[in-house]
Write a structure and sequence with these properties.
Dna Topoisomerase Vi A Subunit, Chain: A, domain 2; 11 helices; 13 strands; DNA primase DNAg catalytic core, N-terminal domain; 4-stranded parallel sheet; DNA Primase, Chain A; about 30% helix; 3 domains
């Protein structure tokens, strides 16, 4: 039996069409992830009987095995794709009801539509910083904080805005432990600390990034969630990591543009649900990843089809959002607000 694409699209919130001018009998259509922003409709058809898929716009975008299409839509790695494809729970009938599909998938151990167990909140459990962690806002004049503050300056934050930046994002640093020598960016969701990432300030550190907590709980959060939720605005931009988020959010908020992120390009379902919730507070939602992660960005856009999210091309004058100058962020915001999106 071919892979159940309809159940998969539903579970990942990927918008599909089962009727219309471009839809053949026995097929469903989605936006072609290989065409990206060039496909303004849904030109990739998937045959529900044979499993063949092909794009009406570009004859090179075709295949039979689901691996390549799923990778382009989601950005998942091969191991997770294999788990999904080989699980018999994904070989159901395309004619089943949505309720039946949900019951079937909730029995799966893959974590794609996990049935809630002990957790009653969408967010990860509340955690605490380890001993020796200090809030940067109250330590701006301490000698122990100067190396971290100098790193902020290297990242483009002049000393005059340190107090505001540190307070807005509740930045921290550590006097000992594995977070020592790192700028700590916390993730507050629902007013509670759910996780944090430490960015090494030394170029010689073995690991540039350390994220806590480990495992799935470390992904059941979004950075800058509470700030974005409180303000709303014109655009919610999903970026790759906390430093990208800070730069775009700090200089973009005066233009009605806020940013959020996980801790990498791939996002689990709980994070996607958080993004969908946040999107209700904004006029538009966009995904801005580094150029090397454009396929993953398109996959996220497909999963956010319910809010008509947009793929935002990376500015040519910077390597990533975190490296942009204040002037570059301002110019980017002006271009974004002036660009019509359907």
């Amino acid at each position: 039996m071919p892979f159940d694409y309809v159940a998969f699209f539903r579970s990942q919130l990927i918008h599909y069409a089962d009727q219309g001018n471009n839809v053949k009998r026995g097929e469903v259509n989605v936006r072609c992830p290989f065409c990206g922003v060039e496909d303004r409709s849904q030109h990739l058809g998937v045959n529900l009987h044979s499993g063949f898929w092909a794009c009406w716009r570009n004859a090179e975008h075709k295949g039979k095995r689901p691996h390549r299409l799923i990778r382009a839509l989601t950005g998942w790695d091969e191991k997770r794709i294999d788990e999904v494809i080989n699980d018999p729970l994904w070989a159901g009938s395309r004619n089943e009801s949505l309720d039946d599909m949900r019951q079937r998938l909730e029995a799966s151990s893959l974590g794609l539509l996990d049935k809630p167990k002990a957790r009653t909140s969408l967010f990860a459990p509340e955690i605490s910083y380890p001993k020796g962690t200090r809030d940067l806002t109250g330590c701006l004049n301490y000698s122990s904080a100067q190396s971290v503050l100098q790193y902020l300056q290297v990242r483009g934050y002049r000393p005059s805005i340190w107090p505001e930046v540190c307070k807005l994002y509740q930045l921290a640093y550590a006097l000992d432990g594995d977070m020592m020598g790192r700028l700590i960016v916390p993730a507050y969701c629902g007013g509670k600390l759910r996780g944090y990432q430490g960015r090494a300030i030394s170029k010689h550190a073995e690991n540039r990034y350390l994220t806590r907590p480990f495992g799935r709980d470390g992904k059941c959060l979004l950075y800058n969630y509470d700030n974005a939720w409180a303000s709303g605005g014109k655009w919610l931009i999903l970026v790759e990591g906390p430093l990208d988020m800070m730069k775009l959010d700090y200089h973009g908020r005066r233009h009605g543009i806020r940013a959020t992120c996980g801790a990498g390009v791939n996002m689990i379902d709980e994070q996607m649900t958080m993004v969908l919730r946040l999107s209700k507070k904004f006029d538009q939602t966009g995904v801005l990843y580094d150029p090397a992660a454009s396929q993953a960005a398109l996959g996220i856009v497909s999963r956010l089809a319910l809010v008509n999210a947009h793929f935002i091309p990376h500015p040519e004058d910077s390597e990533d959002p975190g490296a942009m100058t204040e002037r570059q962020v301002t110019a980017f915001c002006s271009r974004l607000l002036a660009t019509p999106f359907s």
